Amino acid sequence: MNEKVIAAVSVLVIVVALFAYLNSRDAEDRLLSQREARIFIVSAETRETVDFETVLELEEHQFTATLRSSDGGVRDHTYTGVRLRDLLEHHGLDVGGAEQVITRAADGYAVALTRDEVMDDDNVYIVYMIDGQPMASREEGGSGPYQVIIRKDEFAQRWNKYLMEIEIR
Ligand SMILES: Nc1nc2c(c(=O)[nH]1)N[C@H]1C(S)=C(S)[C@@H](COP(=O)(O)O)O[C@H]1N2
Ligand SMILES: [Mo]
Known about the structure:
This protein is α+β, with helices and mostly antiparallel strands and 169 residues long. It has 4 helices and 10 strands; from the N terminus they run αββαββαββαββββ.
């Protein structure tokens, strides 16, 4: 009996410690993404940390898109960024075999993209400038430092602000 109680308590302690650990790691990732402009790429095989210098090594694109804001406003903006696809390929990650790519934000928002959307030449971008200005973080009142923009999705619901993590699966 006593041993059973000890075993049960031990399991609980381990579970609580594990959750605390996972939680603190998540909080750390949120801070790194928001304050240091890091992006984490995760797949079954790897976990890579991307910094802004690496993003700047990729081919830069500029385009205009219409933002339909949740406040009802409709505004055109010029965005500057890189293709999500180029970032994954730069890290030697093959989207060809993936079922989907999930983008996650520092506020927990997640958006699932199909392989075809990601592989499209001119659709899914990670942008870091809006109208020629760096994108501010959430606490600075912006949508950055990175935002995912899906050009062929005219509604902005899937334009993931505060991008933190890209999961290939
Ligand atoms: N990270 C994150 N991205 C997000 C959202 C969000 O809550 N969190 N909201 C979505 C929705 S519903 C809209 S309409 C657009 C624009 O939202 P905004 O006008 O509040 O910036 O962002 C989308 N991307
Ligand atoms: Mo929205």
